[in-house]
């Protein structure tokens, strides 16, 4: 089972993404802020993180940098899903190392395709042998 953590302070959007991913065979869990995200990541293994950028208290970029500082978390791929969909923000996402960028509003089918593509690329030759 592939585990995905969705980090977004928009309750409705968070639930929509998680429900869609769960309906498509993934195990997606949503959290509404960075602190809850870290608690989840420290207590559970995730194969992918889908994160908003604009959140209260700690933005997605800070979340990303903190993930990269932790040995156990540093290799988890991150896809940003955000309303900050200007060129500079998108470029910054890729510069820091995010594997993908999805602007809001979004189509759930596109989120699914990008999640699958990311997992296929990253885990293609891994021992996990994901079946997508």
> How many DSSP-defined strands?
5
Cα distance spanning the termini: 10 Å
Radius of gyration: 13 Å
Please give the count of helices.
Answer: 5
Please provide the ordered H/E string of secondary-structure elements: EHEHEHEHEH
Major sheet attributes:
5 strands, parallel
Spans with pLDDT under 50 lasting ≥5 residues?
none
Helix content: 40-55%
Shape: globular
Mean pLDDT: 91
- Judged by helices, strands and strand pairing, the structural class is alpha/beta
Percentage of β-strand residues? 15-25%
Strand order in space, largest sheet: 2-1-3-4-5
Please outline the helices and strands.
Elements: E1 3-7, H1 11-23, E2 27-31, H2 34-43, E3 48-51, H3 60-69, E4 78-82, H4 87-96, E5 100-103, H5 108-123
Parallel strand pairs: 1-2, 1-3, 3-4, 4-5
Can you describe what's shown?
Helix content is 45%, strand content 17%. It is an alpha/beta fold. It has a 5-stranded parallel sheet, sandwiched between helices. Helix 3 (60-69) links the parallel strand 3 (48-51) and strand 4 (78-82). It is globular. The mean pLDDT is 91.
Brief summary:
The protein has 132 residues and is of the alpha/beta class. The chain contains five helices and five strands; from the N terminus they run βαβαβαβαβα.
């Amino acid at each position: 089972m592939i585990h995905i953590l969705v980090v977004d302070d928009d309750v409705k959007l968070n639930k929509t993404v998680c429900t869609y991913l769960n309906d498509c065979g993934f195990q997606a869990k949503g959290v509404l802020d960075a602190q809850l995200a870290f608690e989840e990541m420290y207590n559970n293994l995730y194969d992918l993180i889908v994160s908003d950028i604009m959140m209260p208290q700690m933005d997605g970029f800070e979340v990303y940098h903190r993930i990269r500082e932790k040995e156990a978390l540093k290799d988890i791929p991150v896809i940003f899903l955000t309303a900050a969909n200007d060129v500079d923000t998108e470029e910054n996402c890729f510069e820091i190392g995010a594997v993908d960028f999805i602007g809001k509003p979004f189509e759930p089918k596109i989120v699914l395709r990008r999640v699958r593509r990311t997992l296929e690329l990253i885990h293609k030759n891994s021992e996990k042998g994901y079946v997508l």
